[in-house]
């Protein structure tokens, strides 16, 4: 076990706490201006234990902030049409301001069709193609919560992105792709890697900023990390293990996110904040 140099840790819990203080203030302003409580609907299909836990955590966090959670649970075996109908119902319900469809959804469901049923103004998790298009173009949108949280962490720790070489490992529509776009928009030079990339260790060795979003425990080795690089571990694998070999990477890194306590708390904080913003926009309140 490496000695942990606390000065190198990017404390996602502390930054998330600050984000959530701002969210609570927005919720108060919305309620005093309109009498309406911001509301997030969480939609869960099936009973995958991790997904059950994640949706429960999100509802609890809503309650902690004075927001209203609406719980929609559909059985395993729900069809794409049934799920889309449920999302459309929430979309036309004025008392619901944000809609989160917990993923992964069970295999037979057309996930894309389900996501696209969410209207952009309620897409607080940033999953629709319209949102992704806006993120790529740097237009206002509810940025997918994990990359949004990572950007906020990079800002809070004054990480210089202009002209930096950022390597993003993973190209999923909710994480790697929007992350790469946001880094490009922040003037970084970005290399986006995936499972077919050749010579990954060499590419990572040239990075000033490494974002690991792979879904494989301790995949990124300490020996791949350039001295002084900033290492962001978005991974959250079974056993609460990140995608980076933390013990190996902390030595060369200048800053690194721990798992847990790094990117995870930021993701949920951004979801809450987006929901408050969505409610404000729908109710015509300045926050
Ligand atoms: N902290 C949070 O709140 C939060 C939120 C969301 C996700 N996560 C975590 O972030 C990680 C990624 O999530 P995701 O939803 O983006 O996963 P995903 O959809 O499974 O995407 C994983 C990406 O990693 C790439 N990859 C897989 N094996 C690779 C290899 N050997 N070399 C290089 N790239 C490889 C895949 O490449 P291909 O495209 O070529 O298949 C894919 O683009 C997971 O650990 C997940 O639990 C955390």
* Radius of gyration of CA atoms, rounded to a whole number: 19 Å
What top-tier CATH class of the largest domain fits best? Alpha Beta
Strand order of the largest sheet: 5-4-6-7-8
Give the distinct bound molecules. NADP nicotinamide-adenine-dinucleotide phosphate
Number of helices: 10
Indicate the overall shape. Answer: globular
Total separate domains:
2
- The percentage helix is 40-55%
Oligomerization state of this entry? single chain
Which stretches of 5+ consecutive residues score pLDDT under 50?
Answer: none
Largest sheet, in brief, is: 5 strands, parallel
CATH homologous superfamily annotation of the largest domain: NAD(P)-binding Rossmann-like Domain
What is the end-to-end distance?
45 Å
Portion of residues in beta strands equals 5-15%
CATH topology of the largest domain: Rossmann fold
How many E strands? 8
Which structural class fits the helix and strand makeup?
alpha/beta
The CATH architecture classification of the largest domain is 3-Layer(aba) Sandwich
Helices and strands, in order, run as HEHEHEHHHEHEHEEHEH
Mean pLDDT across every amino acid position: 97
Description of the molecule:
The structure is a single chain. This protein has 287 residues and is α/β, with parallel strands linked by helices. It folds into 2 domains: 36-120, 3-Layer(aba) Sandwich (Rossmann fold); 144-263, NAD(P)-binding Rossmann-like Domain (Rossmann fold). The protein is built from 10 helices and 8 strands. The protein has a 5-stranded parallel beta sheet. Strands 2-1-3 form a 3-stranded parallel beta sheet, with helices on both faces. Helix 6 crosses helix 7 and helix 6 packs across helix 10 (263-283). The protein is globular. The model has no long low-confidence stretch (mean pLDDT 97). The site of NADP nicotinamide-adenine-dinucleotide phosphate has 26 residues, from helix 10. Residues 146, 169-172, 174-176, 193-197, 200, 213-216, 234-237, 243, 263-264, 267 line the site of NADP nicotinamide-adenine-dinucleotide phosphate.
């Amino acid at each position: 076990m490496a000695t942990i140099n606390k000065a190198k840790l990017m404390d996602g819990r502390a930054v998330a706490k600050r984000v959530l203080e701002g969210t609570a203030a927005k919720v108060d302003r919305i309620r005093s201006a309109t009498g309406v409580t911001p509301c997030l609907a969480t939609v869960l299909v099936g009973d995958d234990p991790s997904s059950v836990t994640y949706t429960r955590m999100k509802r609890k966090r809503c309650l902690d902030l004075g927001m209203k959670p609406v719980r929609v649970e559909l059985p395993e075996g729900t069809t794409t049409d049934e799920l889309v109908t449920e999302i459309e119902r929430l979309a036309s319900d004025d008392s619901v301001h944000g809609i989160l469809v917990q993923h992964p959804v069970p295999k037979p469901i057309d996930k894309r069709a389900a996501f696209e049923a969410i209207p952009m103004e309620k897409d607080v998790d940033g999953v629709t193609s319209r949102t992704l298009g806006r993120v790529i173009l740097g237009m206002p949108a509810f940025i997918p919560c994990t990359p949004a949280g990572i950007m906020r962490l990079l800002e809070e720790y004054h990480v210089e992105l202009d002209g930096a070489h950022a390597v993003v490992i993973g190209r999923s529509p909710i994480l790697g792709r929007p992350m790469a776009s946001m880094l490009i928009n922040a003037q970084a030079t970005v290399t986006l890697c995936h499972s077919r990339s050749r010579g990954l260790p060499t590419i990572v060795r040239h990075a000033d900023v490494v974002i690991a979003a792979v879904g494989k425990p301790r995949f990124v080795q300490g020996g791949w990390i350039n001295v002084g690089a900033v290492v962001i571990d978005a991974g959250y694998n079974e056993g609460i293990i990140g995608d980076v070999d933390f013990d190996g990477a902390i030595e060369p890194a200048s800053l690194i996110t721990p798992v847990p306590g790094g990117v995870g708390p930021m993701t949920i904080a951004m979801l809450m904040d987006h929901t408050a913003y969505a409610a404000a926009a729908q109710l015509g309140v300045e926050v």
